[in-house]
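Retro notes (design track)

What went well: tokenization of the new backbones is finally stable.
What didn't: we kept losing track of which sequence belonged to which structure.
Fix going forward: every design gets posted as structure first, then sequence, in one message. First example under the new rule, 321 residues:
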């Protein structure tokens, strides 16, 4: 039996910048997904505590996007990209809310890949799982979610340069909390305008390009503010990021805007912004400890790893390099 774990992530700042080679600042969180797998056979069969119907994926699956039930597409994507020699039978259990924008799909992909014996460093694991996500969902996503899950560092956010794919841990100050609050709007990334936004950016749409240029500068400034302990300054940058995602990239919703305004007005909240792709999902807030009494207080955590029984030396170390 192999047991593998992969965390979800929250992005502090730098959204819709990864797929054009920009800067992002996510962190792996202390909510995640565990896969227990007994190897054998030519099917990957997994039951999930979050889903009614199990995943049954042949190891020679060739069209992950056509697999049912829908959650099994992410398992199929990993199988199609990593091509394990044998399948296995097991279970998936998760503490991540599904479809909230905390990368439950990336955590599933990364934990399944490790449970199936993936060998390679964190970056290779992330790139394989990004490809799995694209094949499963048809969404041309960037690498942020999978790389944050694979390469997380306890107590640190990750400054990722998506052109060189370098990861620089940025220590979080001790006197802050990161709070994630769900807007109540379920996000449907596959049917959202994600692909349209990406195409508009690549075609040079002025407002989309202005967002990305400004957001990259804000990521650099935010990382410096964290290092300097300038939490008020970090909060101002979060507000500017949200405004740019709302006005120039147009991925916010009235519900997300109202939630950001309400949270920002609470004493002790330095800043808040939508996090992830937008179109619903979650808001992330940077706060003084105990300022908010809602949502999840998340802690920056180590990345994905094999917890027990894995054969792969490289897989065991995937979270650390
Ligand atoms: C989703 C994608 C990421 C990234 C964010 C927006 O989470 O999977 O690659 O593009 O949206 O920053």
């Amino acid at each position: 039996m192999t047991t593998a774990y992969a965390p979800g992530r929250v992005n502090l700042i730098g959204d819709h910048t990864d797929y054009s080679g920009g800067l992002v600042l996510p962190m792996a969180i202390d909510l995640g997904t565990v896969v227990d797998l007994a190897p054998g056979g030519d099917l990957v069969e997994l039951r999930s505590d979050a889903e009614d119907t199990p995943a049954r994926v042949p190891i020679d699956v060739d069209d992950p996007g056509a697999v049912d039930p829908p959650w099994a597409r992410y398992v199929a994507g990993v199988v199609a990209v990593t091509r394990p020699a044998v399948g296995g039978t097991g279970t998936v259990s998760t503490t991540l809310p599904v479809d909230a924008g905390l990368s439950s799909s990336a955590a599933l992909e990364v934990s399944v890949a490790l449970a199936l014996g993936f060998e390679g460093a964190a970056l290779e694991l992330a790139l394989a799982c990004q490809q799995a996500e694209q094949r499963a969902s048809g969404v041309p996503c960037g690498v942020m979610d999978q790389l944050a899950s694979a390469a997380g560092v306890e107590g640190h956010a990750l400054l990722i340069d998506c052109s060189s794919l370098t990861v620089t841990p940025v220590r979080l100050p001790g006197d802050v909390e990161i709070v994630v609050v769900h807007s109540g709007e379920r996000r449907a990334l596959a049917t959202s305008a994600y692909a349209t936004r990406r195409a508009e950016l690549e075609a040079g749409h002025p407002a989309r390009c202005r967002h990305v240029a400004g957001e990259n500068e804000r990521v650099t400034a935010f990382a410096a503010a964290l290092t300097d302990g300038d939490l008020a300054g970090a909060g101002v940058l979060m507000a500017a990021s949200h405004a740019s995602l709302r006005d120039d990239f147009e991925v916010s919703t009235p519900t997300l805007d109202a939630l950001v305004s309400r949270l920002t007005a609470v004493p002790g909240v330095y800043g808040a912004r939508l996090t992830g792709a937008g179109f619903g999902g979650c808001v992330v807030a940077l706060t003084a400890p105990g300022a908010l009494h809602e949502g999840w207080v998340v802690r920056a955590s180590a990345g994905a790893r094999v917890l027990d029984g894995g054969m792969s030396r490289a897989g065991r170390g995937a979270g650390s390099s």
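Added context from the reviewer: The chain has nine helices and twelve strands.
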